[in-house]
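This week, study the protein below.
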Amino acid sequence: MSKAPSTNATRLLKRLGVPYTEHSYRYEDKGGTSASARALGLSEHSVIKTLVMEDEKAAALIVLMHGDFEVSTKELARQIGAKSVQPCKPEVAQRHSGYLVGGTSPFGTKKVLPVYAEASIFDLERICINGGSRGFLVEMDSKELDRVLTVVRVKAGIA
């Protein structure tokens, strides 16, 4: 594999002194967390996906979810006090985050967005999450999410 990229996400993590390990893999278009978990020999449950969504007012938000779970948008909307929540179109997600879909990281986003994370992510000791480029994950202690981001814990995952 080639040298790991320097991204807004990794520059932020380094600046904040967050210990992490870099993992590069061959990106598969529409492969998602199952492809990255398979390529790196990881449990898909510990690979955290970063989803850019929007509420009924088109206000963007980030959702962090286990790779092997789906987001119940109805339950998420209820928990955050929105009428509805839906995924952003790829070009809208890119405009908000500054990252290409498939390479979206919650760290170092172009705009500061509210972050909602499935509460059970914090039960895991280590997680792998996108490092800001397609085919690039960073592995870290799940508790670092609270140190780097302002995270609201929710229970909106469907296994």
